[in-house]
Amino acid sequence: MKDKKILIAGSKGMVGSAIFRKFESEGYTNLLSADKKDLNLIRQDEVENFIAENKPDQIIVAAAKVGGILANNTYRAQFLYENLMIQSNLIHAAYENKVDKLLFLGSSCIYPKMAPQPMKEEYLLTDTLEYTNEPYAIAKIAGIKLCESYYKQYGSNFISVMPTNLFGPHDNFDLETSHVLPALIRKVHEAKQNGDDYIEVWGTGKPKREFLFVEDLADAVFYIMQNVNASDLYDNDITHINIGTGEDLSIAELVETVKRVIGFDKATVFDTSKPDGTPRKLLDVTRLHELGWKHSTSLEDGIKKAYEWFVKNKTQG
User: Fold this and answer.
1) Catalytic annotation on 81?
2) Helix (H) or strand (E) holding 31
3) Active-site position among 95, 111, 136, 151
4) What is the pLDDT of residues 60-95, one digit of tens each?
5) Domains of the chain (ranges, CATH numbers)
6) I want to staple 23 with a disulfide (CB 3.0 to 4.6 A). Which of 28, 70, 81, 235 is the partner?
């Protein structure tokens, strides 16, 4: 069982590396890496040749082009094209090479902008998406439907999970392209280092968000790979499984939490000329809890671990 050959696509990124470490810690000895340095996942021929040569038993699709509001809205064509190609190449190659099981990781942005809260899996495709990350969301929805369709047409054991906002070691802390939490960690850290009197944050601070520590996500992926199959989902009209905490807080509250962890007690200035994005994004994780999994890392403890990693790896030199 633990000698299964498992390909983790995107294994150098925050999510993929956490999943890789989780499987290693569970005693899996035959893990394959597929990242930008290993092969170009956007190129169909390269992906097909890699899968045919290595013949993995299972594939976890954690590779994606990701970013925050600014990156999503600026590089719309890249976010749509690259994500469509990465997931389509891997999913189709998995089918062609009779891979036993595939798990595709999406994103909570697949849900409509004004979806009822918390967001249940069945709210998918019921209304209009948030415009700023629409290309990324459309790509992820296509990935969900690819997995479902390959099962319905070919019987492929391909399933999808939708994580909430993730953070942790190996996150992207670039202020131009990062998500809100790593951006805040860097902003607050630099403000403290510089002796600033305040930090500036985009938007009003009112939107509410849910955050999951990436090591908890890796644990959930491992659990689902052991316990859930395509027939459990699609035969019961379920398209995917939400992965989150079921708890959220406002951006203003998040800022105060980050400031508390880092030890910065100065003011926060909200730039209300900048967009807020979706008003609220909270996943309904009832199905996940019914399957027997629940997160174990509190938000504050997760931020402490993420900040420790940032200080050790991103602030030297």
Assistant:
1) no
2) strand 31-34
3) 136
4) 999 998 777 777 778 899 999 999 999 999 999 999
5) 6-168+212-243 (3.40.50.720), 180-207+247-281+298-314 (3.90.25.10)
6) 28
